[in-house]
Amino acid sequence: VQLQASGGGLVQAGGSLRLSCAASGRIGSINIMGWFRQAPGKQREWIATITRDGTSNYADSVKGRFTISRDNAKNTVYLQMNSLRPEDTAVYYCNARNILGTTQAWGQGTLVTVSS
Fold it and tell me: What is the pLDDT along the chain (116 residues), one digit of tens a residue?
């Protein structure tokens, strides 16, 4: 499985961005797709996940502001980020896991910078 993330950039606080992550390769093995982020000097943290049937979960830090969605026909997962804050600044990574929860792949990371 290969993942290609895109959509990062520079945005002012309060603004919005949408990240995309396209999967290719042995996509039939993918069950859960998700997003993580890593801010400078911090550990990578989980943001959101969505299963093949559309069940989603969010970290408390983004709940109500971020929305994860998935287009199985396009093998793509999205992260709509609204009401962005400077503390959301990080490199965002997409992740794909199989039905056992084993990671199949990481995307290359896309930088999101939120200015105050």
Answer: 999 999 999 999 999 999 999 999 988 889 999 999 999 999 999 999 999 999 999 999 999 999 999 998 999 999 999 999 999 999 999 999 999 989 999 999 999 999 99
88 φ/ψ angles, rounded to the nearest 5 degrees: -85, -5
- Could you say which DSSP state residue 86 is in? G
Instruction: Report, in this order, helix, strand and coil percent for the chain, each rounded to 5.
Output: 5, 55, 40
* Residue pointed to by tokens 């603004």: 15
